Amino acid sequence: MTQTKATIVSGMRPTGPLHLGHYFGVLENWLNFQKEYKCYFFVADWHALTTEYNNPQKVKNFISELVKDWLAVGLDPKKCILFIQSQIKPHAELHLILSMLTPLGWLERNPTYKEVKHELAAKNLNTYGFLGYPVLMASDILIYRPNYVPVGEDQLPHLELTREIARRFNFLYGNTFPEPQAKLTEASRLPGLDGRKMSKSYNNSIYLSEDFSSVQKKIMSMLTDTNRKRKSDPGDPARCNLYPYHRLLTPTQIREEIKENCTQAKWGCVDCKKILLSNLEKLLIPIHEKRKQLDNNPSLIEEILDQGNKLALETAERTMSLVREKINFI
Ligand code: TRP
Fold this sequence. Notes:
Elements: E1 7-12, H1 20-36, E2 38-43, H2 45-52, H3 56-73, E3 80-84, H4 90-101, H5 104-108, H6 111-119, H7 128-131, H8 133-142, E4 148-151, H9 156-173, E5 181-184, H10 212-220, H11 243-249, H12 252-263, H13 269-295, H14 298-326
């Protein structure tokens, strides 16, 4: 018996190059999902416009960079559908219809909305589009009628809203949208070089496309356990910025060895950094090689996206026909 695979939808905003925090927080999961689910992964360029509306060119330029990062880490267009949100116009039509039935209160009390608006006060986010962001996100999701949506914790309120909007649509016009479940991804398991959250704005990131020589410099100048002044002082991995990196990149047995030699003052921090670098190299060099191939073959990205857009559009059109039928706007 052939069983249809469960469907997953997720998107990323094209606002900058991806870093190791994205790799361990999001992409690693996507790589696993593509093995067992029907996946729709898209570049959320309209979403990026909600905060970057004064600089659309910047958004545009990051689109192919983002797709290159995806392909370089191993997302496989034969296994998942990769596409660009703004190329699938039915997202906008569904957004319009869903906006009719979404009560303002649901949007106004969304905690992410309040937080981001406050954080980015300088950007003037007093816009209709920014308030309606979760309705657009609901459209992105519901138009593929998925079972699951992998999101970080900050996006959970948005997904809850998507479910509420789906329920309301179903109540008003008859059962149309399954309520998608969140697949919660552990947020940023990898801190930045300074121990804070890895983020472009903190200047503490290692980018997936960054030259390895630059990665080496960054790791070599990282602060470790600041109580450890000399190699002969015992170190404490719990106080070290580097150790969380070993947790993700170094096999358990070697990690235990590192811990022992650090706390017994047998190995210095440079020894420890060298082990990490060799593991980072194993992860990053194949990514860089794949990226180089993509840089040398720009028409390949175009073909991949054309194909992904086509497949996404087919599903989106099918859902829209159903929606138009339900509201009797045929
Ligand atoms: N809101 C998400 C973010 O800021 C991006 C996004 C847009 C998304 N539409 C989506 C994620 C649909 C999952 C599903 O990162």
